[in-house]
Amino acid sequence: MNTKRLSVISLALSTVLMGSVTQIQAASGDDITVYSSRKEHLIQPLFEQFTKQTGIEVNYLTGSGGDLIERLKLEGSNTPADMFMTVDAGDLWYAGTQNIFQSVNTETIKSNIPSYLRDPKGLWTGLSVRARTIVYSKERVNPSQLSTYSNLASSNWNKKLCLRTSKKIYTKSLVASIIHNQGEEKASQVISGWVNNLAAVPNAKDSHVMNAIIAGQCDVGLVNTYYYGQLIEKTPDAPVKLFWANQETTGVHVNVSGAGVTKHASNPSGATQLLEWLSSAEAQAIYGSLNKEYPANQNIDSDEIVSSWGSFTQDKMNLSIAGILQADAVKLMQRLGYK
Amino acid sequence: MKEILIKSNIWVGALALAIALPIFVVGSAWLLPGTDLWSHFAQTLLPELVSSTLILLIGVGIGVSVLGTVLAYLVVMVDFPGRAWLEWALFLPFAIPAYVLAFVYLGVFDYSGYVQVWLREYLGIPGFDIRSGHWAIILTFVLVFYPYVYMMARASFKRQKIQMIEAGKMLGAKPLRVFWRISVPLARPAIAAGLLVTLMETLADFGVVSLFNYSTFTTAIYSAWGDFRSIEVAAQLASLLVVVSFFLIYFERKARGKAKYYSSDVSNIKAYYAKGLTGWLIFLFVFGVFMLSFAMPLLQILIWSVEVFTLEWSDRYFDYFASSGILTISATALIVVIATILALPSRRKSESKTLQLLIRFSTLGYALPGSVMAVGLLYGVQNISLISIYFAGSSINHILFGSVALLLFAYVSRFMAIAYNSTSASSEQIKPVYGQSAKLLGASRLRLIQKVYLPMMMPGILAGGLLVAVDVMKELPATYLLRPFGWDTLAIRVFELSSEGLYERAAIPALIMVVFGAIIMLIFNKLDSEKY
Amino acid sequence: MLSVSNLSISFDESQVLEGFNLSVESGDIFALLGDSGSGKSSALRFIAGLENAMNGSVVLDGADLSLNGVHSVKPELREIGMVFQDYALFPHMTVFQNISFGIDHLSKKSKTEKVASLLELISLKGIEKKYPHQLSGGEQQRVSLARALANSPKLLLLDEPFSSLDKSHRDELVKDVRSILKKQSVTSILVTHDEAEAKAFADKIGKIEKKQLFIN
Asked: For residue B31, is it within any domain?
């Protein structure tokens, strides 16, 4: 190596370093900056539409929910973020406790989104509903055998059950709802029943659960419905079907993805405008069809494929509870060996 | 002269200390009050994950050592059909991120994958869950990490004197005995260095273990943080990883032993000729490893990419590519320059124990899971900010958070081990006599470094640069947390799509990364072969 | 005892040996003299089976080792010992491990005895536990000789063994090695470019000139 090459490299390097310091996005003027744990491919088309209609640019940074909350806390009043968006009620509730949101209680939002999908103090607003329910093999299961989440713990399903890992937040929220609805003792019986019935090590993804059912590794599982939607869109004749759980009892466990305006937003009015737009019928239609979720705005219909699965009763448990009970749910699952 | 040396030592020490900042921040978590989370973990997760982490480390360690060493030996010492192209092709698996290989393997080999479907339908073999037990994940790690050992061992075998082997032969030793008693012991430091990198990477992995739902130490770290929002306990657990790595490094140093390993120039004489059936059997084995670790996964992501190309492709890909490219190039240059400074032979001779220890500390970031290190860095900046607020009245968080500078700093802390291992190994090959003779010829210190040390260290610098480049490109957790707006990389795109189960779409950015990585490998391979 | 016939060797394009013949009697010490690039080392390495040639046959003790340029016996099975220019001692093994490398099949006790007697032969008693890098060049070459002699080879090949030693040590070592080889009556071939060294060491000298061997 010669020094010439070295100096070229160091020159290039210092340029990058200098550039990076000036790179910081000053959220200039009307722009809105969003931190989101909802993935890019699910939010970018929405923001594009918003910009088209209002002329307001939206910058976004995706990341994992926990990371972004931590970053927001550390950035404090200097944060560039005007809005924080995430995909689980537990995360929304936790973000609420960490003092990073400000209350937004506009009439538009109140009329668009029912109150049980919103934070009581208006810190965050649910924007889509995600139902977690039973999926079963059309070939090997008669739906009359199915009823509740707890029923999957019965010995009828020995070596026939596939579950997603307990590390996933959707599993944690579901178990939190079971603790809330049935008490810790009953919940622990349910979890150990599930663990005994497992046909395979819990899967990393909902899509793996359904693949395992199709391949015959197991007969029943639990998934968020939009993953079923993705599967059916790709392979319409897949031999699996959804079953609405707990219809005679508490209703299907639902979770939300949602957003709130940050406490130190530099453009709070813009962020509020975006939040209102996201709750509108137009945005809600895009929201749902992009990812086969249920709209949080009750005034509009679901996507065509989604509505073909029929209507169901939702568990109306206040979603903050999912957040409050999450740690208990995790401890329970770890104690009972649900990996 | 001596004064200059001491002064430069202080600078180098300060540099090493700065690089180790995230380690100290993570370690300082022990100063915070304990929580009852520890007793919960002790009763639930810890017993299982200690044993499964150990099994994983032992299995992967044995696997990569054997596979990497055997492949390197065959390629360097034996002439068999296809050797010439397999020699560099065996590097290519480096270009595939571990998590990509893991989801491809699960897609192909798990119960619902087409291999098992075929086995069930045509041979009637009952299906099985490859994620239960240990062997499948060990095999995955071995196939993704063997190139570390292969690369180091290959370089070492290439520099081994052919006379050593000939002497062995003339004393009646058959090929296998020559391999075990002469070649392998001589390559032991190189093998140990490759093994060390592998084990640290395995310890810090989160992507593969979560796809297999396998419990390791990182499981507890992420549980502490993700489930219980306890950054303290996560950092305390993570600092244990650092301690484990410290011991691993110690054992690696020990493995070098007392014997001196100054080696000779490269000889092109092949020790053995494998003709006929033996040659083809060797080819089949080496080719099989190449197929399984590179060609098959590449083919799979290629097929997936074609299926969804129109759906997934957009102009955004130019941005992803540019971000990945700029970050990779600048981080690599930065890391390699620093690693070279830290590893210069004069440093080794300066006999400062404190400095050696500091340099060692600066390489420990490799054992930390990327996101723990990133949060450690954020808290480090926060602490500096508090000082800045006290003195200057303003926080510096907003200047550093989300800046490329901080991200590059994270890469330096995280990947220093890789570059340093490689540069210091080549620096140790330099006999003291070269420096002495250059000094006698009146060369200044700068000239000595320029004209003698750098050219002699170049193979190590290049090899280190190559590994770092590919690692930076594949890096996910730290980039995900620290990147500035608009700096989404290919790795982030792969993660975002695959975490939603959209593997077909994730295959497109993965494919670009693999091709990009393969090109880096080929460039370096060319530079590397010019050096020999 | 040893006969090499019709050996033809070429480097790249140019042929260095053509129709080279050589025979060595049992117990003789033969010196093969030649300039650098004359092919003397290659001839030696062909006898050892380490290097290939266009043509040539080697017969040792009535056994065909190589026939018409094809090695029929592998180097490790030829029972030929070799001493290399740069000693080629295994750096990771002690002197004891080095010398006993070729006789590892023997019992621990007979190995110890054998190594001790070899060390006595080369006048370096008691250095069993040392590593090669702790020895001087001359000492390393003696150990290397002891290692080559340990399994009593039928033929010993010495490839410029003295050339990396300084003059004062060299003359002494040349004498010592010769007397050791004579004492053990080992048939040997020395390759060197130094005529004085050849005269002091060997019983017979052959010189490579015009791709052939000339015996004076």
From this structure: no
**In the block, which residue shows the tokens 């799979």?**
B300
Crossing angle for the helix pair C137-149 and C108-121, to the nearest 10 degrees: 130
Nearest-neighbour CA in chain C from B165: distance (Å):
9
Q: DSSP secondary-structure letter at B92? A: G
CB-CB contact of B22 with B376 (8 Å): yes
**Region of residue B442 (left: phi > 0; alpha: psi -120 to 50; beta: else):** left
Nearest CA among B230, B227, B237 for reference residue B203: B237
In a domain, C67, yes or no: yes
Q: Do C77 and B172 touch (CB under 8 A)?
A: yes
Say what percent of chain C tops pLDDT 90: 70
Contacts of C149 in chain B (CB under 8 A): none
Q: How far apart are CA A265 and CA C56, in angstroms?
A: 89
Give yes or no for B133 touching A (CB within 8 A): no
pLDDT of residue A25: 42
Task: Give CA torsion, residues B425, B427, B432, B436, to 10 deg.
Answer: 180
Mean pLDDT lowest for which of A64-68, B251-255, B379-383?
B251-255
Q: C-alpha B268: how far from its chain's center?
A: 29
Inter-chain residue contact A16 with B398, CB threshold 8 Å: no
**pLDDT confidence of residue B4:** 57
Q: What is the CATH number of the domain that holds C53?
A: 3.40.50.300
Using pLDDT thresholds of 50, 70 and 90, give the confidence band for residue A261: very high
Asked if the C-beta of B432 comes within 8 angstroms of chain C's C-beta atoms, the answer is no
User: Alpha-carbon distance A208 to A212, whole Å?
Assistant: 6
Whether B262 has a pLDDT exceeding 90, the answer reads no
CA neighbours within 13 Å on the CB side: how many for A198? 20
Structural domain total, chain A: 2
- Please report residues of B whose CB lies closer than 8 A to that of A335: 43-44
- DSSP 3-state percent helix, strand, coil across chain B (nearest 5): 80, 0, 20
With a cut of 50, say whether residue A213 has pLDDT above it.
yes
pLDDT range class, residue C175, cuts 50, 70, 90: very high
**Contact criterion met (CB < 8 Å) for C92 and B185:** yes
Taking an 8 Å cut-off on Cβ atoms, the answer to whether C88 and B167 are in contact is yes
Q: At what angle do helices A169-197 and A326-335 cross, to 10 degrees?
A: 30
Residue B261 C-alpha, separation from nearest chain C C-alpha, in angstroms: 7
Residues 6 or more apart whose CB falls under 8 angstroms from that of A145 comprise A156
Residue, of B451 and A171, whose pLDDT is higher? A171
CB contact, 8 Å: C101 with chain B?
yes
Q: Of the ranges A124-128, B337-341, C8-12, C179-183, which one carries the lowest mean pLDDT score? A: C8-12
Query: What tokens does B308 get?
Result: 């969804």
Tell me, yes or no, if B181 comes closer than 8 A to chain C by beta carbon: yes
Backbone angles phi, psi at B130, to 5 degrees: -70, -10
Distance from the first to the final alpha carbon of chain B: 34
pLDDT at residue B34, as a whole number? 72
pLDDT of residue A16 exceeding 90: no
Q: What is the domain-level CATH number for residue A208?
A: 3.40.190.10
Whether residues C88 and B161 touch (CB distance < 8 A) is answered with yes
Domain that holds residue A171: 130-253+314-335
Query: For the segment C70-122, what is each residue's pLDDT rounded down to a tens digit?
Result: 999 999 999 999 999 888 899 889 999 999 999 989 999 999 999 999 999 99
Kindly state whether residue C103 falls inside one of the protein's structural domains: no
Total number of domains in chain B: 1
User: pLDDT tens digit string along B235-250?
Assistant: 899 888 888 888 888 8
Size of chain C, expressed as the number of residues it contains: 216
Ramachandran region of residue A260, left (φ > 0), alpha (ψ -120 to 50) or beta?
beta
CA distance C40 to C191: 7
Number of folded domains in chain C? 1
